[in-house]
């Protein structure tokens, strides 16, 4: 396709999407190591975490039969009311049996309640009789006793005596009635009451035993394998992909794609599809492993769908976070931290608490918290021998269960939608126009037909006004750009025409690149209007930038893809078909003389060839508007000359705008030249206009060769008599030069004739004339501009030292030069530590975030625990033998001997309370229950409330309790002692669980101890993340060659690495101080933790240094170090959890 042809029609959105997907996939899969990490990493970590379970041969399912429960618990002190001698004897008996310190009586229930609340510590148990018992002389037949324990459990203050729920939380296997001491007080008090009523009674032995269980998978190891293994590897992969997106945005690759019609939704969708495919590959293998060992009864497609939804959630979260960052290091760390914090809502609000509907809905909205809840549902269904299937997504297995897997999936999808909306919001906020943060509520956002009024007047004063018959392509009117109150571009008014090359000339920081960014739409002007192809760039950016392409100062190329692919990709993006694109590629490979490098990867190309490839990528596809920012950088003279010829040939049908520092390049290439100084146009026109016609005070140079007898004053006088404004420019050796102003150019012919006639008289050998150059014009215009701004002093050559004096000042004197090796090493050490401290200070926000993260998380854990403690008030009484709260009550009885009186009374009581009694017909109760569980485990756990085995020969009763019920143990004991009391003492005993409101002072120790698991998980994830930051500076220094420069300057490798290690280790100690303090509060034993953390830090930093030598790509090394640290730190959390257990 020749450059003179009309531009082709743009590609459709579907075609663009496919091209960008192919680009993203090829770019990602060309990074072989990172692709392997993303695919294989999660599988390897899963195998490491669950090795003990996965590499064992599956065993036949075995049932679990529990031994009798030891209900003995230490009860230090007993308070009771009312004060009465009969009751005192009963309580004295209880104190004796419990081996308590003592007891204290109170006149009424209110005084008892106040005394319990007034204690600062736990350990006091209240026994509350009816206040009418204060005047009794003997125990009445009906005795109702309230046992007063703190509302929040002493062993775990996160839990309360919730007398409104029936089933236990799925993760709460502990019988808190036992560990809190309720059962032992209930049993001893019942026995004391029976003995007080009948002193001669022979009480049977009562044994409490839990129902047997079938084999379950719900244990700590599985929870770690399912939560930690799925969370961190996917997060690491998503963080790496997000930093690749940030890198493309930072290098303006995405901006170039937008110039060629790739909309934001196409770009993000392409990355999402490629990333989702990458994460789906290990997910399929994970499902196979989970299906084999953990979720054998669940539907594999449902497990896969759940994990894919989680992948979707992780990716949308990572992409959303990436829209807030422009730093590749910061975005990876931020994603890991945010996802780590995403686990906290579940651990703070549900883990260890009685779940409520509002808390559950709130937790489902957080990443990783919803993952934990979903996995909890899978584990629960497996334990119930049901498995999770599509048909039971919205079916509950518990009466008091709030959320099922179906709503969890819906909330996860809803969270994805929210994150996509935030991403879209940030995209709009970063768009060409300067939007306010509240732009969605502005009328202009929704009413797109309202256009900004155009300015019809165009100031062309001081510019060349000749119209050359070429179409106007780009028009800039009154453009200004201000950065932080610093004016980068001021009052820019320019026209750019087709078939012309306009060259910008200007010193460094004159605003050339800023103008290019404004014309390309990468930046929005602070004032003014840009019109391209007849469209306002501010209001119709897509049409205005159609057929535009930009070549920035740095090469925007894919390092691991060859040159031919680049040209074909850009041709296809610009609308060419596959065949046309191939022909266009061959054409520009030949024109740019790139045939020998067509199949060479970009990273192996010389810098000049890369620049030519970048230029050809811009020219191909017949781009109508080209913005070339110093395209000749890094080219040798021959290649630069070829580039000039190429641009002159290819300008037909194009509008080429170019920036350069090379005056000769501008003279050769430019049709129009724009001279910039400090963001302002000080000259605009053709080469001849700027050097000859424009008021630039340009001059011809008259060069005179003098003889030995020549007097320069006579020559000067001869010239100035005819033209007084002729100035002596320079006198060197035999040459004398004069400046001849161009305004007298028409009269210089006569001057030269007179001068030739007077050569002998003036003792001159010969004369020659040099025309004014663009360089001289540029320097003079810039100098005049600065003089008008009173800034000449900063550019006065006389005020600057001579080059030789500057060089001498740099040389060390004998007084400061150090030859002593030890002193020199110390100086180098101080210099490197100073560099490290400066780097840390410049990135203080990043490092302060790393230090503050554990402090914030610890404060959140403790604060939430105290907050929930204060708001969690459910003071309600519960009669432990009340069957009305259960939908269906079935009791199992086993009596080897017929006619046991306790059995008859037990049956009568159960039937009287509305329950049903089943006999095992001689089968032991545990075997009977196991058979029933294998047929319908849910039915047994929900309806078989309790049981009893009556052994007349041994004079014992086994009270069987359903451990899945929250109140199963006191119910079973209560029914047994009720039957015993009625048979032996005609005493009706009713035990009521009546908690009292405790205080934070009482629970603080228990709250801190209960946070030990959270602390262990915090340390695990924090150490995984924090130790990766020590690879940042070594990798950056090696990539920028600073490390090599230091070695070349005499710094030894040992000095370099040891100085880094000393600074980083001191910083590491600062990082772990909060962990040590929290460990001292939660665990109590600080020394083992300190030693382990210090040893880990030294080894981790040294190991990180070794790993960072593998690659200069920090994103890749960040992922590798995270994986290695995650596997290594698992030992810390396992040891800590073993200590806690």
From TrEMBL:
GO molecular function, a single term: ATP hydrolysis activity
Predominant location: membrane
PROSITE patterns: ABC_TRANSPORTER_2 (PS50893)
TM annotation in the entry: 33-55, 224-245, 265-290, 302-325, 331-349, 361-379, 405-426, 846-871, 1015-1036, 1065-1083, 1089-1108, 1120-1140
Membrane topology category: Multi-pass membrane protein
Location of this chain's protein in the cell: Membrane
InterPro entries: AAA+_ATPase, ABC2_TM, ABC_transporter-like_ATP-bd, ABCA, P-loop_NTPase
Keyword Transmembrane helix recorded: yes
This protein's GO CC annotations: membrane
Protein name listed in UniProt: GM22002
Organism classification: Eukaryota, Metazoa, Ecdysozoa, Arthropoda, Hexapoda
């Amino acid at each position: 396709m020749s450059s003179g042809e009309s531009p082709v029609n743009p590609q459709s959105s579907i075609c663009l999407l496919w091209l960008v997907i192919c680009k993203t996939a090829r770019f990602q899969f060309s990074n072989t190591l990172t692709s392997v990490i993303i695919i294989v990493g999660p599988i390897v970590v899963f195998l490491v975490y669950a090795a003990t379970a996965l590499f064992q041969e599956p065993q036949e399912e075995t049932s679990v039969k529990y031994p009798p429960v030891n209900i003995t618990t230490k009860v230090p002190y007993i308070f009771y009311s009312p004060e009465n001698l009969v009751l005192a004897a009963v309580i004295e008996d209880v104190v004796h049996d419990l081996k308590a310190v003592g007891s204290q009586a109170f006149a009424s229930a209110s005084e008892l309640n106040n005394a319990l609340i007034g204690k600062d510590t736990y350990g006091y148990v209240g026994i509350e009789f009816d206040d009418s018992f204060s005047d009794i002389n003997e125990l009445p037949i009906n005795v109702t006793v309230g046992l007063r324990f703190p509302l929040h459990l002493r062993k775990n203050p996160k839990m309360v005596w919730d007398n409104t729920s029936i089933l236990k939380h799925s993760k709460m296997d502990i019988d808190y009635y036992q560990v809190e001491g309720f059962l032992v007080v209930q049993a001893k008090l019942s026995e004391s009451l029976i003995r007080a009523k009948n002193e001669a009674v022979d009480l049977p032995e009562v044994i409490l035993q839990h129902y047997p269980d079938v084999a379950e998978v719900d244990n700590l190891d599985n929870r770690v394998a399912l939560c930690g293994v799925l969370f961190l590897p996917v997060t690491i992969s998503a963080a790496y992909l997000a930093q690749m997106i940030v890198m493309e945005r930072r290098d303006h690759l995405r901006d170039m794609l937008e110039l060629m019609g790739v909309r934001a939704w196409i770009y993000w969708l392409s990355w999402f599809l490629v990333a989702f495919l990458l994460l789906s590959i290990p997910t399929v293998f994970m499902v196979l492993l989970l299906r084999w060992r953990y979720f054998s009864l669940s539907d594999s497609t449902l497990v896969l769908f759940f994990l894919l939804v989680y992948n979707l959630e992780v990716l949308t979260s990572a992409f959303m976070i990436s829209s807030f960052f422009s730093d590749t290091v910061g975005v990876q760390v931020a994603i890991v931290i945010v996802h780590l914090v995403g686990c906290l809502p579940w651990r703070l609000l549900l883990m260890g608490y009685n779940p409520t509907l509002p808390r559950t809905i709130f937790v489902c909205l957080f990443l990783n918290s919803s993952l934990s809840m979903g996995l909890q549902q899978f584990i629960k269904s497996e334990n119930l021998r049901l498995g999770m299937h599509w048909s039971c997504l919205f079916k509950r297995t518990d009466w008091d269960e709030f959320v099922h897997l179906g709503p969890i999936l819906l909330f996860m999808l809803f969270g994805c939608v929210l994150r996509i909306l935030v991403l879209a919001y940030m995209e709009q906020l970063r768009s060409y126009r300067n939007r306010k943060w509240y732009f969605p509520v502005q009328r202009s956002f929704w009413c797109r037909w309202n256009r900004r009024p155009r300015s019809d007047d165009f100031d062309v004063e001081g510019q060349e006004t000749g119209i050359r018959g070429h179409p106007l392509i780009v028009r800039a009117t009154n453009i200004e750009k201000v950065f932080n109150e610093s004016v980068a571009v001021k009052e820019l008014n320019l026209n750019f025409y087709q078939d012309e090359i306009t060259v910008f000339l200007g010193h460094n920081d004159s605003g050339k690149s800023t103008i290019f960014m404004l014309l390309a739409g990468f930046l929005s002007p602070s004032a003014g209007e840009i019109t391209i192809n007849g469209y306002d760039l501010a209001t119709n950016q897509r049409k205005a930038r159609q057929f535009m392409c930009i070549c920035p100062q740095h090469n925007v190329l894919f390092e691991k893809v060859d040159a031919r692919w680049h040209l074909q990709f850009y041709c296809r993006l610009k609308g060419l078909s596959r065949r046309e694109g191939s022909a266009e590629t061959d054409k520009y490979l030949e024109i740019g003389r790139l045939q020998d490098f067509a199949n060479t990867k970009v990273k192996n190309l010389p810098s000049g060839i890369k620049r030519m490839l970048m230029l050809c990528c811009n020219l191909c596809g017949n781009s109508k508007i080209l913005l070339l920012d110093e395209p000749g950088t890094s080219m040798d003279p021959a290649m630069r000359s070829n580039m000039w010829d190429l641009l002159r040939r290819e300008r037909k049908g194009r509008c080429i705008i170019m920036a350069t520092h090379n005056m000769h390049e501008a003279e050769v290439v430019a049709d129009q030249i724009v001279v910039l100084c400090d963001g302002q146009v000080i000259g605009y026109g053709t080469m001849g206009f700027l050097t000859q016609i424009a008021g630039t005070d340009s001059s011809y140079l008259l060069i005179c060769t003098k003889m030995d007898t020549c007097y320069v004053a006579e020559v000067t006088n001869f010239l100035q008599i005819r033209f007084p404004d002729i100035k002596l420019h320079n006198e060197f050796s035999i040459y004398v030069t004069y400046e001849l102003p161009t305004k007298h150019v028409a009269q210089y012919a006569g001057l030269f004739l007179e001068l030739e006639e007077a050569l002998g008289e003036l003792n001159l050998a010969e004369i020659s004339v040099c025309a004014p150059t663009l360089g001289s014009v540029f320097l003079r215009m810039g100098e005049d501009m600065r003089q008008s701004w009173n800034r000449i002093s900063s550019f006065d050559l006389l005020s600057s030292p001579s080059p030789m004096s500057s060089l001498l000042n740099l040389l060390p004197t004998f007084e400061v030069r150090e030859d002593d090796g030890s002193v020199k090493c110390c100086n180098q050490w101080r210099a490197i530590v100073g560099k490290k401290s400066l780097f840390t200070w410049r990135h203080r926000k990043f490092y302060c975030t790393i230090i503050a993260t554990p402090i914030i998380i610890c404060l959140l854990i403790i604060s939430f625990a105290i907050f929930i403690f204060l708001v969690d008030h459910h003071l309600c009484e519960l009669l432990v033998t009340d069957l009305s709260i259960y939908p269906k009550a079935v009791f199992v009885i086993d009596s080897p001997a017929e006619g046991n009186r306790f059995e008859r009374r037990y049956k009568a009581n159960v039937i009287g309370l509305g329950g049903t009694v089943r006999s095992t017909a001689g089968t032991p109760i545990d075997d009977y229950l196991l058979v029933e569980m294998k047929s319908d485990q849910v039915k047994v756990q929900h309806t078989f409330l309790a049981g009893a085995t009556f052994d007349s020969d041994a004079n014992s009763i086994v009270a069987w309790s359903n451990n899945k019920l929250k109140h199963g143990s006191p119910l079973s004991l209560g029914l047994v002692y009720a039957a015993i009391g009625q048979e032996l003492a005609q005493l009706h005993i009713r035990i009521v669980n009546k908690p009292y409101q405790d205080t934070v002072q009482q629970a603080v120790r228990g709250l801190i101890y209960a946070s030990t698991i959270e602390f262990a998980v915090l340390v695990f994830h924090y150490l995984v993340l924090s130790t990766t930051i020590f690879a940042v500076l070594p990798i950056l220094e090696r990539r920028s060659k600073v490390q090599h420069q230091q070695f070349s300057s005499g710094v030894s490798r040992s000095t370099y690495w040891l100085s880094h290690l000393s600074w980083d280790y001191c910083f590491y100690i600062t990082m772990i101080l909060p962990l040590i303090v929290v460990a001292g509060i939660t665990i109590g034993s600080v020394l083992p933790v300190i030693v382990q953390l210090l040893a880990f830090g030294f080894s981790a930093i040294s190991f990180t240094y070794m790993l960072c030598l593998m690659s200069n790509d920090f994103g890749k090394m960040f992922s590798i170090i995270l994986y290695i640290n995650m596997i290594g730190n698992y030992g810390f959390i396992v040891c800590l959890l073993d200590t806690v257990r």
